[in-house]
Amino acid sequence: MMNLIKKAINLVSGAIPEAIVLLVTRVALAGIFWRSARTKVEEGTWLQMSDTTVFLFQEEYGMPFPEITGLIATYAEHFLPILVVLGLFTRVGAAGLLVMTLVIQFFVYPEAWWQTHIIWVALAGILVVRGGGMFSIDRLLGHKFG
Asked: Per-residue pLDDT tens for 4-18?
């Protein structure tokens, strides 16, 4: 029985299973922020920030300089998920999404830690620590920061 358990552990501990899990983690984290990014722009455009976004950043989120902070968030939520899903500078992209999550947690929705943000932190943390994995552009290019 113990031999069977050891074989199962060895099977799931290999490079290919880790690469698959890291790819799924990259897609999951990127998808969360990409969908959020698309709600911040005018429909039919790529990066034209909507008036609703400025309103939300000013009134609901209470952010200073809502035109600027909204634009930074909109661009970051588009650019960083692309890096993460491609596995290009994965650790940098994931660290950026981790910082965004912490800003959201502490300044926007502090009550959402256990429902949502802890999962985002875990996904980003895995990518910061492990990188993009075997199925990433980082691995193809041999990046040290991937």
From this structure: 998 888 889 889 999
